[in-house]
Amino acid sequence: MTDAMSGPEFEQWFARILVASGFRDVTVCGGSDDRGADVLAIAPDGRRVVVRRKRQSISNRVGSAAIQRFAGTCRDIHGGEICMLVTNSFFTAGDGIQVARKLNITLVDRNALEMWAWTGRPAPGSIAGGGTP
Fold this sequence. Notes:
Blueprint: H1 7-20, E1 24-28, E2 39-42, E3 48-54, H2 64-74, E4 82-87, H3 95-103, E5 105-108, H4 110-119
Parallel strand pairs: 3-4, 4-5
Antiparallel strand pairs: 1-2, 2-3
């Protein structure tokens, strides 16, 4: 389903998932001057959420470089308390996932995204667990 969406459609779709999951003040802000933030929100527990989406082909995995770039803007530029990188694909095994853990970046891959969309709840250990994937 998400594979046929444009980037802006994917952002809007994910914003609706956040709203349905109890997030508030959900704002889509993606674009060429977004400074790495596609969606901003307030989590049910009151923390500021910054989302970067990576909509791409399923065979194109999100790597360590994208995670590092997002980590560089999420907290310092956008004031994120929960920094979430969401993809309709997957993340590279190894270094990317290790970097995300070290930098406390929540990773939401295709499988977790599908489960979240289906159940209306984020994957265990992501949001409620403090942002660690």
